[in-house]
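Friendly challenge for the regulars: who can give me the structure tokens for this chain first? No prize, just bragging rights.
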Amino acid sequence: MLRGLLFRSRLPFAAIAAAVWAGAPSARAADSAASSRDEAYRSMLLLTRAMEQIRRHYVDPEKAAYTNLVHGALRGMLSALDEHSSYLDAQSFTNLQNDTTGRFGGVGIVIGVRD
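First reply, four minutes later:
Bragging rights claimed.
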């Protein structure tokens, strides 16, 4: 694979070797990155298994749809960070932007019935 990459890129081998050597992380950093990646994979496996169990066994299949589960997981993840973090779906984000920019539709009148 590396050999094919060298021939296709037409870069001198010395330049590639120098770039790889200069950019190579230390053994400790590589071990830390691998450990972090392993932890991420284990966590994703746990989340995936939980989603599959919910989809298989939950009484209401519509509520157990992947979209609902993923959006719920995102809401839970962000709310676990702090009280100021929250997940917004596309519509909620648009509404928030409209509310915070001061733009609104209408002429500002209220119509009602009086006695």
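Residues 27-57 form the longest helix (31 residues). The CA atoms of residues 71 and 89 lie 8 Å apart. Your move, everyone else.
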